[in-house]
Each structure stands twice: as structure tokens, then as C-alpha cells.
């Protein structure tokens, strides 16, 4: 069929029919309320209808019903969590499924900073905020996409591998087709999807159904009444994400080869630890040899939602991506819209810039645009010298740290980076962009377009606290709090488990990663090891429901304590 929209309509009808025939009613629902509680509820109902019942009898019946309901719900919750733990399923997902309500937005800050609780006004604030956010604000020239050969057909094997790489139980898009449905299909479904997607790729056009999405606002941290503290996640069509995942697999190597060594975000063989270790080592060497060092930590406002589409396409052309894929991706970002629903009324927001958060190809597109902008910076003689070359910056997606030998150099680099960032739509956050300098560095202040940037004594970079003394006291305190925060929700399951091996598995997979995050970048000192051992023993005692006195009474010493 010539029109991709009509073709996708027919495909969608067939998939929805398959889903309807394949679905079975769930008949094993676990009753949350016991028979005894139901009898109490019936008795209370009878008392309310009895004109001779006294007020005291009704109060006693109400209290008995409340207590019985609370006990039944707690028992049901404990049973479901225990089943999830014994089945080694996600406890976080289990608790989310057991939650019977979501925290609603009760108030929002308007443009003047005034709190409003009117639902109609809150919807208007949301519509204005995201309309302005997704409106194109920087003119970027349309890229000159050269002519290219017709791309190879999409193979059923590519579809199969892309489906297998999708996370299970992900939220479906507006078309209600889930990843679990595609995963349940076999080779015949893979062949059908490959034929349809090959047609879209050959025509370099996508169905109009893929241009719409549903946006969910996820609170990050900070004031819940400020929309800037929410991350908009697009619930896209699963078939669209399958299509872009196949394209990503084909162009990923080309994009990675165009990235410099400084970029560690979303690249195979790179991780956060690379950047954390590098920054930590630079701080230590400069401190040891009494060298001046200034670290400037750059934070962008809504970076993934602000980058201009034409900048992304220009970057893809510049980095050698095949022209047919560039034109297809250009069509993917043409005339898009999303709906945000705070209450009953869906709010439609047109999208003219930014990458679609929730799409697997989006991080690669963003880093490509960032590299396209930063390659014009002449920083060959800027930064600090490491093994004969200058290290000027490190990046993990939009998290950038600049290295310099003085505050004057740091200010020049920061303003140059700001200028090239503005050309692709990126805006620096003046309040969250900070700098840190050691005792051997001259200069007192750094300004960004006349605005003074705050100096800090420590900064949390990629999840690890850094300071110019390389003092781990603050970071160990953060790891201790993170470990106890991870252990708290776990106790609902561990207090019921008798299997020591399963209990140890939950502890090792949940608590230890929180306690030991970035531990490979720490200095191995006796004080650090003692602090870790102290926290680890305290967590193990709570896991086994011991305290120091009962541990000594049981004759269990540290090497003998079973987890």
C-alpha cells in the first residue's frame, strides 16, 4: 500500500485482533479481604439499617471493621511481596502494583512564581510551559542531505533481535500494542513486521500514528510545584520504537566513531566510572604536585528537550550517516505532538524541537548534535596537560566538566561553550552550573555572560561527591544513607524469608550496589575500609534481626554470621 498511514491502520487492526484472541481472562485473583472481615462488614451494614441499634454498637462495629480491613490488606501485601521475592521478581514493581493511588498534583507555580491550586489554571500553566519548551527558538539552517542509495531491506532477524532487546512489561503507546505481544509472536510475525518497516524505510516516510505520543511527568527532585523539576517521558508506539531501534543498530557504529574520547555517555565500552576515575585522579595528581586546577561543572536546562531538530540532522549528515536514514529520521520528527493529562482533559502540545525521551535512539542523536556543536571549539591548547596532550573536558551525554588552570581560562572556556551550545538550542542553568578550584589556583570568580557562577567546595558528579581534598568523608556518608534507604523497603520481604540464600541474593543485588557505588574510584585506606565494614555489619545485623547484644548472646562473631 502506498500510504504508510493506511498501511499501518490495517497492520494495527490485525495486531489488535490477535491480541484480543490471545488474551485470556484472569481467574486467579487473590482475595484481599477474608471471609471473617466480610461477615463483619455485613454485620455493620445490618446495624446501620437497624433503628434499635445504639450508637456505641455502631462505633464498635466501625472499629472492628477498620482493624480487620487493615490486617487483611497488610497480610495481602506481605504475601504478594513474599511471592515476588521467592520468584526473584522486581520488588519495586510489586510495590508499585500494590499501590492503590498516585500522588496527584495539587498546586503549581505560574510564571510569576505564585502558587495556584485551580485545576483549570494548572492545566493552562502546563500547556504554556510545554508549548514554550517544545517551540523552536533558534534558527538552524536545514541540512543539505545528499542523495543516497536505497537502504537494505529490514530482515526478520533484525526484527527478532530488536524485539528481544526490549524490556518486558513496558508501557504501551497510544495504539495500545505492547512489547509482550510482539515478544509472544513468532517468525511469521517477524516477517510481516519486516515487510511493513522495509516499506516505510524505502519510502522514507512513517505512519502519522507514530507522530503522536502520550507524555507522563516524572518528578526528579526538588519542589513538586515547579514544572522544571519534572522529566517528560513520552509513551511512544512500541512499533515505532522497534523501527528506530533497528535504525539505531545500523547507524550506531558510525555515530560512535564520530565521538571523541571525552564522550562516555551511551557508548559501548564506556561508563560513568571512567569519568569519575579520571576526575578523581586529576584532583589527586594536582594536589600532590601543587598544580593549579579549576573544575567547572556545566548543567543545561532541559537539554534533551531543547536541542534543535535541524542541528541533529546536520550532525548526522556531517558524521557520515547514510542519507536515507537521515531523511527517515527527519520525517520521524516532522509534525509531532504529544498529550499531557493532569486530570480529565488531555492537553495537546505541538513538538518542534528536542529528542523524544523514551526512544532508544534519542541519546545517540543528542550526543551527535552536541559533538557537532563542540567540534568548532579550538581547545587544543586549553585545559591540563596529560601525557603530552591537553585534557579540556569530559562528557557523559549532557553532563560536562571543564578542566582549566586558572579562573580566567575557565571563564573563557565556559562562555565559548555557552555560545556554541546556544546555536543548537541549549541553555546553561545559571544556578546549577558551578565551579571548584584548589588552593594553588589564583582568581576568585567566574562569570557567564555577566552573571557570577557559584563556587562550591564539593560537587556530586555522576552520583559521586567530589572535592579538591579528595576527602571521602562526605561520599561515605552519602553511601551509608543510600544503603539504608535501599534496605528499608527490602525488609518487608527479608523479615518473612527463611531461605538464607534468597535473603543474601536480595541483599547483594539491592543494598550492596547502593553502598559500594563508585567504590573502585576511592582511595583504599584503612579508615575507608573500617567505615564500610561498620555499615556493612550493621546492615547484616538488621537483615538477620540481630542487635549487638543478641549477637553476642548467640555467640555469633563477624566471620560466623550467615547472611
UniProtKB/TrEMBL annotation:
Xref: SUPFAM superfamilies: DNA/RNA polymerases
Domain Reverse transcriptase: 199-466
Xref: InterPro entries: DNA/RNA_pol_sf, Rev_trsase/Diguanyl_cyclase, RT_dom
CDD domains for this protein: RT_nLTR_like
Protein name: Reverse transcriptase domain-containing protein
Record gene name: Acey_s0087.g2042
